[in-house]
Design brief:
The complex is a heterodimer of chains A (330) and B (261). By secondary structure, chain A is an all-alpha fold. Chain A has 13 helices and two strands. Chain A has a two-stranded antiparallel ribbon. In chain A, a hairpin with a 4-residue loop joins β1 and β2. With 261 residues, chain B is mainly alpha-helical. Chain B has a single domain, classed as Up-down Bundle (Ferritin). Chain B contains ten helices and no strands. The N terminus of chain B is likely disordered. Classes of the chains: A mainly alpha (330), B mainly alpha (261). At the A-B interface, α3, α4, α7, α12 and α13 of A face α1, α2, α3, α6 and α7 of B.
């Protein structure tokens, strides 16, 4: 769902103890667009950055189930209920294979989840905003998944094999999510006056947080250069953000909705939309865990995990008994 | 009112209509309950499987309620029936509307329901009503998995740790009083069974009991005689829980009656 680096401090420089010939060979493979696989040698900083990025991505998928899950029980038709259930389930599936991809780098899922619950690990800021009406479910699919696709399509060619392969499947599903979101928005924008009001209100609330999903501006994104050299990232935050605005504004116009940015205008010379200043203080507050429903999100995640502990323990205990019984029989 | 001769799958058949509501409402209400877990399950794998079961049940409800609407012949479809009936008109059994409780309670409910539903739908797949037979055959593939999946969890939790064993026992303790209702036969069931549309529910009891005995042995759980039965769901007399469930589920279509979504 979200893949932009949220740690402000740059990665540690490559440790001097790593043999130069290994580093050179690694860099050459990456530069030649080869995939790095789990058993290949890799610099410690590359491994660290990937674990952070992939686990952050996995956490975002799992936390991202909550805002949409909030509307499953109130979906307004049987078809919408089925589609939303399937969609939220997909996000859980993405979380699962992203955790699995991160585990190939030597970090256990429990360890990553612990980092999420203690606040050490980040997840996408977007999920710290509430879903207030049914139109928010449309807006999330359209804008949030739309932004996620822009972030993730280039990652199908990212240098780490398991991550790149996970992204291929994730992107297929995300494009379905984006379409279902836009379809909800079309239905609402062409519906009753109350529905149109909900659709506009949802766009008003989700527009700026969606632009923030691409991460801080390039000049405040200290890890971008290194990550691009390692092919962990393929485009800069600002490039992706511009692409998103260029694609999304005509979609809003087609819906007959107004993008909440008085400075938005199309520049004939550049062929791009110019847009207003993003409130980066809001962004950093949300990153710090001060988003409107950040407390609720973490409360729900920790509660589910803690209350599920006895189930996980029971499953492990039963599996161990079965294993013991099988061994005794052999 | 209903006679056996009218219950042959013809349109405007009140017994068949009511019978389809019973089936469709069971699936719908249980789907609604299960979807409350989405994003909150004990582990991601379980989250995915619970959502999957909920999704299957929404699909069953859609097919069954759409068909019910056609049989009724008053222009109501599945959505109309799902979102614009009040509790008195719902025909689901009391079991499916019971609160999730902890994961043990949810699995107790699921196991009891899916085990019974599997036996019933095996019969329905042979129904003299071709449309219902088709729906049942499709659903049966899903239900086989739901029954196996929930039985596996009953065994895992029953056999797992002292805590999980106690929670599994407590989960079943909540649900036992609603089991008899699954096998009740009233005049509608009798008419439907006589027309060969569905097996009589009481004919499924022995197979259900045998299944229960097998699972409980594997789970090392004790089986005791059932408490007094609580009935009423099939006549629209539900628990206090259903009204709240419907209030959430039906909110949008009720608040904006002219809107399409």
């Amino acid at each position: 769902m979200y893949t932009t680096e949220l740690q402000k401090h740059p990665s540690k420089p490559v440790a001097a103890t790593e043999p130069q010939e290994l580093i050179d060979a690694f860099e050459a493979r990456v530069a030649a667009d080869e995939f790095i696989e789990p058993k290949d040698w890799m610099p410690a900083a590359y491994r660290r950055t990937l674990v952070r990025q992939i686990s952050q991505h996995a956490h975002s998928e799992i936390v991202g189930m909550l805002p949409e899950g909030n509307w499953i029980s109130r979906a307004p038709s049987l078809r919408r209920k089925a589609v939303l259930l399937a969609k939220v389930q997909d996000e859980g599936g993405h979380g699962l294979y992203l955790y699995a991809a991160a585990e190939t780098l030597g970090t256990a899922r429990e360890e990553m989840i612990e980092a999420l619950h203690t606040g050490k690990a980040k997840y996408s800021t977007i999920f710290n905003y509430p879903t207030l009406t049914w139109a928010d479910i449309g807006a999330i699919g359209w804008l949030v998944d739309g932004a996620a696709i822009m972030n993730q399509v280039p990652l199908q060619r990212t240098s780490y094999g398991p991550y790149a392969r996970a992204m291929v499947r994730v992107c297929k599903e995300e494009s379905f999510h984006q379409r279902q979101g836009y379809e909800i928005m079309m239905c609402m924008a062409n519906g009753t006056p109350e529905q149109k009001e909900m659709a506009q209100d949802a766009l008003n609330r989700w527009w700026w947080p969606s632009l923030m999903m691409f991460g801080p501006p390039d000049d405040e994104s200290p890890n971008t250069a290194q990550s691009m050299r390692w092919r962990i990232k393929r485009d800069t935050n600002d490039e992706l953000r511009q692409h998103f605005v260029d694609v999304t504004v005509p979609q809003a116009e087609f819906l007959g909705l107004t993008v909440p940015d008085p400075k938005l205008k199309f520049n004939d010379k550049t062929g791009h939309y110019e847009f207003g200043e993003i409130d980066w203080s809001e962004f950093w507050n949300v990153v710090k865990g001060e988003g409107p429903v950040a407390k609720e999100r973490m409360h729900d995640r920790v509660k589910a995990w803690d209350e599920g502990a006895w189930v996980r323990d029971a499953a492990a205990a039963h599996a161990a008994k079965q294993h013991g019984a099988r061994q005794a029989a052999e | 009112m209903t006679t056996a001769s009218s219950s042959t799958g013809h349109r405007s058949d009140p017994a068949l209509f009511d019978y389809l509501l019973r089936l469709g409402d069971d699936s719908l209400i249980l789907a609604q309950r299960l979807s409350e877990w989405c994003g909150h399950a004990p582990m991601i794998e379980v989250d995915l499987s619970i959502s999957n079961v909920a999704l299957d049940l929404v699909g069953q409800a859609t097919l069954l309620l759409d068909y019910a609407g056609e049989v009724e012949g008053k222009g109501r479809d599945g959505d109309k029936l799902a979102f614009h009936r009040d509790a008195l008109r719902f025909r689901n059994c009391l079991l499916v509307e019971q609160p999730n409780g902890d994961f043990g309670q949810t699995m107790a409910r699921q196991y009891l329901f899916s085990t019974c539903q599997r036996l019933l739908f095996r019969g329905l797949a042979q129904s003299t009503d071709a449309r219902l037979a088709g729906i049942a055959a499709k659903a049966l593939k899903e239900i086989e998995y739901h029954a196996d999946w929930s039985a596996e969890w009953v065994v895992r939790l029953g056999d797992g740790t002292p805590e999980s064993r106690e929670r599994m026992i407590n989960g079943f303790a909540w649900m036992w009083r609603f089991v008899d209702e699954l096998f009740q036969v009233d005049e509608i069931d009798a008419a439907i069974a006589k027309a060969g549309i569905a097996p009589a529910r009481d004919s499924l009891r022995a197979a259900f009991n045998a299944e229960l005995k097998k699972t409980f042995e594997a789970a090392t759980l004790p089986l005791a005689p059932l408490p007094a039965a609580i009935l009423g769901g099939r006549k629209g007399h539900h628990s206090e829980h259903l009204g709240h469930l419907l209030a959430a589920m039906q909110f949008l279509p009720r608040a904006y009656p002219g809107a399409t979504w």
